[in-house]
């Protein structure tokens, strides 16, 4: 770990011999050495010393800063991030050896798990792509295998911004033309898919020509999940431009099929593509697409995540098998006074214990070729010179924050410069923790709630996009979604509950249900269930059947809402379908042992209320016979 205090370690000592043929150089370095100890930050130190370094030394500093971000020490990560941010302000001096920097990013990216460090590396990659797209593409294509997890993550970063993506696709188109018998990616299908993506972005390829080319291969149908995720990320970015979005209409059928993949990362990106495309279309153009999309959205937000075991136990089991700690989960262990448990502290203590230092150094040295020890020491000497001032005694260090996915933003406008301040805050694509963390156990409800929220918001948008000639069919689809929308008003995620309320209000306006609209606008949510039953009594049995899966939902609030609604909707079934009423009572009896007291007691009360209704016809029949 870098020492926070001892700046003399990183500066020339008083007995050091300066070159005798350059007295001016001695005086400059002496003055810089004296002032370094008073510099307030790593960026200031980097700026002072950077102009005295050779290009090779600057590249060594960049590589060592990238490597330092994989270290367990938070201080090293913060200092290295600050160094990269300062170097990116003067790319002409610092970012000269693109292939070496790309190799350094590729070798360390999967081990960088802290948000600020990942932001800095992504920003560096975007800046390199904008400045030297040809060198970046050639360097990344030399990776072996060409689409390993780290390379895929780097491609996704470059595909996440419009101007870098267009430059990368131009270079890939050139490479594909010149490849002859050599494949750029793993298979011919992957090369074909990338080629069609380059043709989509090319301004010299018209929509009809692109449609004919795509219909010949239909490459989206035959891709691996990894390549499909990458291509969809490119489509999300390209669909920001109206002219490109119109060329993508030929892809709609295949993009709709990706919604059935079961992969939330792919589903989210497909929904983003649809949102961007619909935003560029007039109502008459968007209406048939909106009608088709509404049917596909229903299963996404109506999906019930079943309750298999209490949530804390399931998450604890997940943590045992995952090599990362979720945000804010550094909780004290049982019996401890403070601090995270020993297992969670393992990463930090590895760099703090003296006896662990050799093993950590050996682990980090594995990314370098044999014989690179002297180069490594020189790099550390240079990087530590710039990092010393950042780690002052008593400085408040930020808490450990794991990198987590965010919804992709819309990106800069087509005419905006790619090197604005927004460029240095990289786009975090959805689901990239699959590549970054190598874990199949994401935090509970994190991804599912994102997908539910976005599908709900898109469902509201497609209801508003439908034209008059399609409204009758759209109303049928909307009626199928009323009950899931109502249950999601009780979702534990506030953003999902809000999105559900907005979608339900749009549904009330489309159906012209004034009472439902009034209850939503006045926030009388406790009366909405009764309103749904009264508004359409003929659907009572269908409502009950649709509610049963929600009795097994993982969220107690949703289970409770389902029990309350069944208590209202099942009453008309005493004359219509006593067999169905008996089935409902059996399902409610299973909830009498629910882990949540409010759910179990409500289920018991509902069974008591419905049971006499179930027995009454038999009693009346007996009296009639007497």
Which key phrases capture this entry?
626 residues, mainly alpha, elongated
Provide structural commentary.
It is a single chain. With 626 residues, this protein is mostly helical. It is built from 32 helices and no strands. It has helices at residues 23-36, 42-50, 55-68, 74-87, 91-94, 98-108, 115-131, 133-141, 149-158, 162-178, 188-201, 207-217, 225-238, 242-247, 252-258, 264-279, 283-301, 311-321, 346-352, 357-365, 373-387, 433-436, 446-465, 471-487, 494-511, 514-521, 528-535, 540-547, 556-569, 573-576, 578-590, 597-625. The chain is elongated, with a radius of gyration of 30 Å. The relative contact order is 0.09. The model is unreliable at 1-21, 31-39, 309-445 and 618-626 (pLDDT under 50).
Gist of the model:
The chain is mainly alpha-helical. Helices cover 62% and strands 0% of the residues. Mean pLDDT is 74; it is low at 1-21, 31-39, 309-445 and 618-626.
Write the SSE topology.
Layout: H1 23-36, H2 42-50, H3 55-68, H4 74-87, H5 91-94, H6 98-108, H7 115-131, H8 133-141, H9 149-158, H10 162-178, H11 188-201, H12 207-217, H13 225-238, H14 242-247, H15 252-258, H16 264-279, H17 283-301, H18 311-321, H19 346-352, H20 357-365, H21 373-387, H22 433-436, H23 446-465, H24 471-487, H25 494-511, H26 514-521, H27 528-535, H28 540-547, H29 556-569, H30 573-576, H31 578-590, H32 597-625
